[in-house]
Structure formats: C-alpha cells, structure tokens
Structures
1.
Amino acid sequence: METSVENENLIVHYTFKCTMNNCESEEIVEAANIAMSNLLPTKSRSLYDIAYNRFKKWCAEKNVQVYSENVLLAYFSENAKNYKSSTLWAQYSMVKSCLIIYDNIDISKFPKLIAFLKRTGDGYQAKKSEIDRFLSSADDKEFLMIKVGLILGIAGACRTDELVNLTVDDIEDVGYSLNVKIPNTKTKIPRIFVVTDVGNMLELFRKYLSLRPPHVKHKRLFLYYKAGNCSSQPVGKNTMGKIPSVVASYLKLPDVACYTGHCLRRSSATLLADAGVDITTIKRHAGWKSTTVAEGYVENSIENKTKIANQVLVGTTTSAITKTVNVSENNIPFNINFENCTNVTFNLNVNK
C-alpha cells in the first residue's frame, strides 16, 4: 500500500507492506496494511506527514542513508537553533511516530537524543525563590492542589504520570516529614523520597488531605479542587501536567507555555545539582537508569559553572571552610573581612 504527501515541492512516497508467509492469507495481509495506514491521528495526520517530510528532505540534502542516533542528534540540534524546547518535543513526537510506521525505527530508544531534547529546555525550570514565593503568596482557596502537586513533584523529581497515580497509601505522615513511595511496576521496587517540614509544606499537604470527601471510593491522592473544596473525581494527566505553567502564569514569568509537566522533574534535578549533589545521588533520586541525563544537569548547573570559573579565573574554589571565633564582651572584633567568596554561610551561636 502506498500513499504520498506533497510539501515544499518535495514528494515523499511512504511504502509499507506486510509480507505474507505460509501462515497468513492475503485477507490478513491486506487488513494489516489498512490498519498500518490508520495508525496516525486522523485530524492531525497532515502535521505528522509534514514533520516527517521535512526530516526526509533534510536527510536527502545530507545524503543520509541510515537513520542513526547521530543523524537524529544532528537534525534536532540544527532545529534547536530556531525552535523552542516545546516545539522540538512536538516535532520529535511526530517524527518518531512516522519513523516507527514507515521505517520500523524506534528513536525513543536513542538515549543521547532524549538527553539532548531534555537539555534544550533547561532554561525553563523553577528557581527556589520562585517556588517559595508561589507557596507563600498564592491563595490556597484557588491554588491548594497546585501547591501540593508542586511540592511533591519537585521534592521527588516526579513524572506527571507518577503524580497522577499517587495514592493516599503511598504517603506516610510521620509528623515531622512525609515519606513518599513511587511504585515501579517493572522492578516492583518503589522509589522513596521525603518531604521535610520546611516552611508550611506539611501544613499545605495536610490541609488538602483533610478536604478529601469521605465517600471517595478510589485511593488516588489528587482530586479536582475548586473554591476550597475537593470533588471525588481524580485529577487527570493533562491537568497535572499544567501545574508548572499555572505557577509560571501566576508569577508572571515569560514563555508560560514552555513550562511543561517535565519542569517539576527538571527543577528537582537542577536544584540538587546547584546544591553540589553528585551524579549518582541525582540519578538515584530521580530514578534514571542512565547517567547521561543526570550528567547534563550537573554540567549545566550555574553553581557548578561558578565553581569552575573561580578555579580557572581566580584560582579559588568553593570548598567549605569552617572558622570558629570565640568572642567575649571584652573582645569584640570591629571588622571581619572576606575576599573572593561566594555562597558564604554565617552560623552565629550566641551563648549567654
């Protein structure tokens, strides 16, 4: 079976054919061919074909014969110069679907390509100051569910579907912290993280949980929330994925549409990297199998880049130095001077 799409004076013929073996009749083969032709979404099929057509044209111009991971990296790296992260992900999704159908190639198994696409959106992550500002200033009557999703999402580097499927049984409130388990259907070994009593985070969680209607039959944690009340309907993936954009909109940040559901996971990794956490810990915390993505966050960490800059340009490091000074009423220093310092923490212990 053949079909063709014309775009920008280029015609690409897509040919896909099920071969018949001794156990398959012509009727089965024809039915399989028809099914394959309908795998793309009907309404947006033209967009998928255009994205695939553009990729094929680029490959023809570069004399590409094999669609390897390096080829895809080069293609999307070139596109990253002109498109935002959200657009790149949309193009990737459409090209991926077409390559599976027309060429039997699954680019979702290209780890370096996925890592590159994730890093193109590194500019869109929440800063700790922005998170704190939203949690303290946004009205609970309107944003309580969003706040709880933000807290758990960043604390646990959670994927959108992990938050959607989180149940009340997965969270243990031990008084001074929340112990959260993220189930893993493949390994059966849950990923565990803790939310400590920082600010009013535990108070917000308990307030939201207290609004849960008693007649709810399921155990999903996140329920639709409006005007200070929870319904029995669980929150879906689309609503959960919009949490970062809702926060960005409230804070009046630029490019609100670029704050996708993945920003929670990305922000968590970035905050850890900025705090100097090692790759192994970040990888374990977020549940990544490969170190490629975790390495990207450490490499792109502003704090890490600052440390390197100090080592190269000034000859200093940001290693911790502890200095204890005993001060009495009769021995109070007038001046304490610090030079070439960043991220300095003063701990004052007053003994009366």
2.
Amino acid sequence: MGILEKISEIEKEIARTQKNKATEYHLGLLKAKLAKYRAQLLEPSKSPAAKGEGFDVMKSGDARVALIGFPSVGKSTFLSLMTSTASEAASYEFTTLTCIPGVIEYKGANIQLLDLPGIIEGAAQGKGRGRQVIAVARTADVVIMMLDATKGEVQRALLEKELESVGIRLNKSKPNIYFKPKKGGGISFNSTVTLTQCSEKLVQLILHEYKIFNAEVLFREDCSPDEFIDVIVGNRVYMPCLYVYNKIDQISMEEVDRLARRPHSVVISCGMKLNLDYLLEKLWEYLALTCIYTKKRGQRPDFTDAIILRKGASVEHVCHRIHRSLASQFKYALVWVSVRQQLESLSSGVSEWSSNPSPHFLLQRGQAQSTALKEWA
C-alpha cells in the first residue's frame, strides 16, 4: 500500500470515528500517523530528477506576497493592475503556467508580488504542479488567497485544506509549547494552564508514535493534539493570509456585505477596479512594515528615500541597513515619531521612548505603520 492509500485510509477512519472521551486517544494516534505520512509525501525524491526550467524566482524587495487561488479567479489580472508587469490573462483555465513576479511600489516600499499558477484539488499530492506552487508560497511573508465571489465558500475551504495538509498555518500563531528531546530520563510533562484538549497520556502516545521516549514538554497554553504534533514536526510555517473575493460586480450587495464582514477578508473587482486601494492598505497592515526616514543635523529629513523595516525593529537594524560597519561604531540616535504613532501608543499603553543610548532599544513597538524623523533644531 502506497503513502497516498495510507493517507486516504486514515482520513476515512478519522471521518467515521465519533469524537468523545473514549476515542480521543485513538484520534490522537491517527492524527500523528497522518502527519508522518504527509511529511514523507513532501520529502524530495532521492533519485536524480530530470533537468528543467526553474519555478521559483529570486526574492527581492522589502517583502514577498504570494497569490494563490484556483484557475481563472483573476490572479493575473490583479498582478497586471497592481504592478507594471503584464501577466497573460484569458477566459480559459491555466493561462499562467509558471511563476510570474511583479513589484508593487507603495509608501516607498517595493513589495514583490508572485502570480502563481492556479492550483487544483489534490495539489498537496502533486497534482497540477501543486507542490511547486505551495513550496513557493512557503517562502512568502503574506499569502493573498484569491477567490471567486460567485463560487461561495467552496474554494476557500478546499484551498485551506490543501495548505493545511502541507504545513502552512494561515492566520495562526505558533503554539506556546516548550518541547525538547533528551538523551535519557523519560518524558517530563508539565503545564502552566488547565488543559482541556490534551492529557499527559495522549502526549506520551503521540511522542511514542514518533519514536520519542525521552523529552521535556511544557504547555503554556491550552493546545489541541494537532498543535502539539505541529511542534514535534517543527517544519510548520505560520503566516498571515488575506482572503480576497474578486468579481463582486457579479453578486448582490447583500452577499458583498456578508463577505466583507468575514475576518481577514477583502472584496474587490479587478474588472471594474473596485476597492483596490483598500486592499493595498490591508496588505501593508498584514506585512507589518514601517518607514524610517533619516536626516542630517540641521537639515530637513529626506522623505524621498525611506528605510523599510518590520514592526519591532531596533536602531541596530537601521544601522545594518545603512552599512554593516555602522553598528560597531554607533553611539546614540535621536528619534522622532509621528503624531499618529504617539496617539496609537498612548491608546495601547505602550511607551515608545527609551533612555538607553545603546543600538538595541526598540524604535517601534506599537501598531503604527510609519515613523518619520522630523526636523531637528
């Protein structure tokens, strides 16, 4: 029996098994086996592969965004509208057969946008170049899941299932579980919270399925068996995702309102160029980028050339972006923040200022999207 058949059998057994206290240990073992077989399926073949055209493109710019969706949902049209790159668009499926990169210029940042070929059901098993598409998506900072608003929630559920099966966790944070294998001493299990989904016995059964008999496990939050398996495997990717519903000009206003109110969702129409500006604002928010401007003593700041960094960046990161030798010679910095950032910091109760002159103090810790260095007198 091949790996695909084993995966199918386990999925069927999980589907027909009732979920209750008596079957939770059995379901936990089945999920552990399913994760193992899926990991084996994604392992590259040891036999030498035939040479062919590369699929991925070199990462460039300040951030990378991947466009994922079924064929003919408007990915190529969206790329052509948002960037200067012309991606072929037609009324038939699978117009795009390889990865086409483009660059979005927004607030001084260069955001690399990748138009990936449409994936189909079963992409995680390699159908329709699905493995290559998903492998590129794992390298992105944000995933834009392009959906056809006329197809309801079917496309979204299928795409989430495909990405989930290959270890991509959308809009989820990494489980707060400490796990460390040891050479001896058995399994040490502790928790700082009351666990309602996992027990010590279930944790031991899952570890034994992975041939782990000596380890230290500490639960700092109430996690499910699936999340604990993710921690054991260790190759999961946690990334933000924007669900973009295209072709809203073909559905009713009530349906548009319902889709727009869903979490992490944006409604647009590439054909009529509707709501694209709001999508850019949401994308900037999900990328968590901030603009840093520099100035010389006694002169106005240069607002034409921004340094783009991630939220939570320190002055040391700014030094490294300017020149790698600057941080070792650095003494102090004068930092000005925008009024908007100060107001957001006050509302969140987070102080933006630090008296520490070292290059390690945080330049930004709030939710503001830009930081401006104003004129110094």
3.
Amino acid sequence: MDPAPAPAPAPIQNDCETELETKANRSSSLWSWWPSWRPTSMSLLKTTESKILACIKNDLWARFVTLANQDRIWTLSLTNKGTPKSAEQAPKTPLVMVHGFGGGVGLWIRNLDALSRSRTVYAFDLLGFGRSSRPSFPSDAAKAEEQFVDSIEQWRQAVGLENMILLGHSLGGYLATSYAIQHPSRVSHLILVDPWGFPERGKPETQQSEDQSAEAVKRPTIPRWAKAIVSILSLFNPLAVIRAAGPWGPGLVNRFRPDFKRKFEDLFNDDTMTQYIYHCNAQTPSGEIGFRAMSETLGWAKRPMLQRVHLLPPSMPVTMLYGARSWVDSSSGDRVAEIRGKAHTKVLLVEDASHHVYADQPDDFNRVVENICKSVD
C-alpha cells in the first residue's frame, strides 16, 4: 500500500543541496534539447527518492557530506529516538551500508528502520552514483578503485566515525573489502552481501566439485548468444542503453527489471522503485565509468578480490551473505574462508533470495545483520 505523503519525513534541503542542483541545472542548460529526449533530472531523482524515504519511521537526517576534495556524498543517518540511553552507556558501533552497482540509498528501504532500532545506521550514495557528485574516473582499474575507496575514507573522516560495522552489497562489497584492507582499524566487522568481483575469471567451474552438480542446475551457464551480446555491450558504458533509449528509458527499466517492482510491491503500487532505478542511472555517467575501468567482459573484476583477501587482518571478523538463487557463486565465500584459515569467516546462504538478498528476504537479512551487530556491541 502506498504510504501517505503528508506526514512523511522529507530529506533536508540545505545550501549544499541547492548549490549542487544549481550546478546541475546550469550544466544541463548547455544541452537544452537533451531533457526532452531523456526524461530525467537530479530534481526528479530527488522527488522519487523522497517518496521512498517517506516510508521511514525512525529519525532520519539526510544531507550532503562534503569531502576534502569538494566532492559531495549524499548521506542518510537513522537513529531510534525511542531507545532509552544510559548516561554511562557507550554509543554502539554504527552500521554503514554501501549499495551495489547502479543502486542508491533508496534500495535499503526495507532494512533501514529495522537495523536502526538499536544503533545509528548510515547509508550513502557511492561517488558517481545516485545523488552524489559525479566526477571523472580514470581508465586504470587500480586508480578507479582507489578513487572509490578514498571517497569512502574521506566520507568517514567528514562524518567523524572512529570505527564502523561495514556492509557492502555487490560492487559495494568489493569496495568495502578494499577499504577494510587499507583501513583495517576502522572496520569492526565486514559484512559482504553477494559481493561482486571476487573470483578469478574462468576458475569457478574448475573449482567446483562433482557434488555441486545440483547447484549447477540452479545456476545455468550463460548461452553463447548472450555472451556475444554482452561482449558487444562491453564496448560501451554498462548503462548507456538506458540513456540512449531517451523517452523509452523508463519503460525499458520496467520491462527488463520488473523484479524491482515486485520486490517492493507491498510498499508501492506504482512504478516508484523502477522510476528510482531509472533516474539513478539515466544521469551523466560517472561511477559506471569507474566500474567499467575495474571490470572485464561479463563483469569479472580485473583485480579479483580473492587475490587480496589474505591482506585482511586475522582479527577482523568477516561474514559473507549470499542469495541461494543468485547469479553470484557462493563458492567464492568458501574460498575466502579457506584463504583466511582460522580467522573468523562465516558464509551464509539465504533461501529463496536472488542477488538482492536485502529486498528478496528482508526479514531474514535484517535478522542476520542485527545478530552480527549485537556480536560487536
């Protein structure tokens, strides 16, 4: 059922936000013909996101966090005002949530309230995605990755967090791992949800044992024609087709990603979520250029994380959470556990969940994450 917009907490409008939108509008005026072809803008993204965030019941603070290099990161922080606090009680370690490729803070709508009942939860749009700044990214994989990771560290410093429980989904899981390797003292527990970019290209099949044949049925191999199409598309930015579709872009998202509408249909009985996905990704490409620099054909990482997980300190607990029906192979999680040896590494499968575990089975996801948070403090 669609939430009533009247009492909804709207994202805070501030000078930084106004300035960012003014710059965006000034830039778009140079291409006055383009808005009529591509029905999107940062203002429409803001409006759609506000409708999603209206579902939040806990205290919400939404603002741009300005980094040392003047990039801005769109940030949500949630607290539960009703939770009693003792004067002697130390504040609990905050949970920081990092979305995946093409996503934004709005996709956590099923999780934010539940996870912020007992501690502060932060969620932000990655640099180059959603409502955050969209700078240029280098074409070198290592440099692109470093730009993402450095923006997360600058964000942490600007917000003033000493340490955090760091959760990343898909691309966010890859970047969260890279961040934890470089800044281990800031991460109390690393939670990776269906993380992208871990296996080395071409090796997962050789590592599978015969008794995994049943799983192979669930995860069919990609047909040759699909590989050929993806190879051609890899010559372009990953989401270029959405922008090239012009006025048909929103319909294209509805047609090819109807699952997003279904995942949230009890919250919205219209196209709110697919509109949000469209507006997040129909803007000027930035983060996706960084992602393309980091990835190979068919989405393999040029710098697979399995080659670096041994750099995580043994004292850092790691939990890897996979959807049992996801296209991401959970055997990478088992390999991480092998590499880390006696270090705390747990691999969990969520039944009846695909890649977007947090939306497919939100109750199970929230329960697992809440238990991890309680284990920290």
4.
Amino acid sequence: MSSGGGQQSQALTKPTFSEVQASALVESVFGLKVSKIKPLPSYDDQNFHVCILRTKDTTDGPNEYVLKISNSESSKTPDLIEVQSHIIIFLRAAGFPTASMCRTKGDNLTSLISVDSGSEIKSYLVRLLTYLPGRPIAEIPSSPQLLYEIGRVAAKLDKTLEKFHHPKLSSLHRENFIWNLKNVPLLEKYLYALGQNRNREIVEQVVQLFKDEVMTKLSQFRECINHGDLNDHNILIESSKSAFGDAVYQVSGILDFDDMSYGYYVFEVAITIMYMMIESKTPIQVGGHVLAGFESVVPLTPVERGALFLLVCSRFCQSLVLAAYSCQLYPENKEYLMITAKTGWKHLQQMFDMGQKAVEEIWFETAKSYESGISM
C-alpha cells in the first residue's frame, strides 16, 4: 500500500495531476490518444484508469491501461522502479497474471516528468501498464478454496523470483523501508499518531515482542524477494463454474509491486494472512487455509512457523499505525487510507486476547487437514 524507499512517507510528495494533465501525459509520453480517464484510489502515488482512442496506428493491442505516477520521493529511486518493472515483465513471462508494461515513445519503461510548482521543481516517474480484468478479493466473500489458492500463488511468486536476475537487483535491499516487516521497530517514531489508548498499548507490546523474539531469529529465516503487499485490493479474481455448478475462483491479476524488497518467505505468508483477515467474517480461521496453500509450494521450517503469529500481529501494527500517520498528512485520502482500520484493530485485539498458542492451534490444525485431503 505504500511506496518509496525512504524511512517515511513525507507530506506533499503525492502527485496531484488533474485528469486533463494525466491525459496529456499519456499522449506526450506514450503516444496514445485518451478517450476516457478516471482516478483510481491509491496510497501515496497517483493512478488513473485510462481508455484510449483507436487510431490507424493503434488498431492492435489493449485499449485499457493504468497510468502510474510515482510520488516525488519514490521518483528519486529510478533503479528500484526499473527493477520492479522488470520483475512485472519477468513474472508475466513465467505465467503470472501481471500487467504488461507499455513502452514510451523513446522505447523506455519509465519517463521522468518535471513539474514547476512555483516554489520548486518536482520530478515524477511515470509508467503505463495494461489494465487487468477481475474483481478485487475485498468485494467477494472468501472461501477456503480461494484462500488456499492465494497462499499458493504467494509462495509460487516468491519461489519463481529466485530465478530473477538484474544488474540493479541490490536496489531491493531497502534498509529503512518502513513497510518491510523487519523494520517493525521503526514504528515507534509514529506512535504519537495513535494518541494514548489501548490500541497504542497493544502496538507497543507487539513491537517489544518483535525485538525480543523475531529480530533474534531473522538469520534463521530463508531469504527471498517479497511482493510485500498482497492485500485484498491488489489481488484480482475471476470465477468460473465447476463441474458441480458452484463458483471456483482463480487469481486473474496481481497488482502493485511498489513495496517489493528483500525479505523472507515467512514474511510473505504473514502479510498475506493479515490482509486476507481484513474482510473475513471468521478472521482467525483464515490463516490455516492461506498457510496450507503457501506450504503446498514452500513448507515453512519450525522456526518460521513459530514466528508466524507475531509477524501477522506486526503487519497489522504496520498497517494501522502508518494509516493513522498518513491520515494526518493526507486527510483528503482518509477513506482509502483507513480501509484496514475498519476491522483491523478489532482483529489484532482478538488475536492478542486469544494468544499465540490458541491461534496457532487453529491455523496449524486447518493446514494439517489439507494433507489428509479434508479441508476444514
């Protein structure tokens, strides 16, 4: 949900292009005429859904795109954005439902646009990707089959990226990137955004437990490249009918690679579990189905499994604290920023009240039931 390699989202870095300006960008940078354009919700970048006008030169190819304008802070790390763009292309070639990248008139994947705001000149990196079909998972009641499938796709994605090579790959080592799970202790400087209450007490406890019990075990986790943001708005699905007439869901789109960084396999599954809990009516049950799907590709080690509960709690804390902080910077974007907060605090509190042992028992028993072919 966030982007930018810096330690924090900074005020006034989010682009504020109008629809007219965004249309002009599509034409001047990518050589495509726009017939319709509308803004899409976003965290600290700016996205537009673009429909293009067919001309003699553009009779082939897609006619729906997403224009991505990176915030001015992220735009200072072009190497990182280049690697992320090449990962999207690599995953598509490997059979994943990622977007295609549209090249600029100069045959590049990105273009740096400078804008004079009066007081200063700001630069923004611009990309154009094909628009992917499907509905966000957030709009569909999750079933065990769908949760298992999402866990499987998450593991497969990380596993596939073991084979990805790029001369600038080291840019994914984002040391102080606030959304990397290993940087949970950095949340302490944003806690003031919560005020003084029970929520803040829980976050403080989670951060302390993270320092004591996770930081000391990082060297025992298996490293990989993480997508890092497989939330319920970044995974699109389409349904088809099974032989028995009921709906079977497939992942039809994976969006938003801006939070990619080096992490660990167990980070990816923890992040995915947390986001799949958000809209669920039975949030505690979710983890076992996602875990079973993930472990069908990458079985976790006992040390990784032992950290899972705390990592899920930690991701809740990241999302909830940074949303509260960002709301102070961008009050006009409050509705989008607070999506997780609607149920997130309640879910985190429930996990904390139940305790690690009870939650793990539910997750691990559910995951085990898949081995015998009986999903719970």
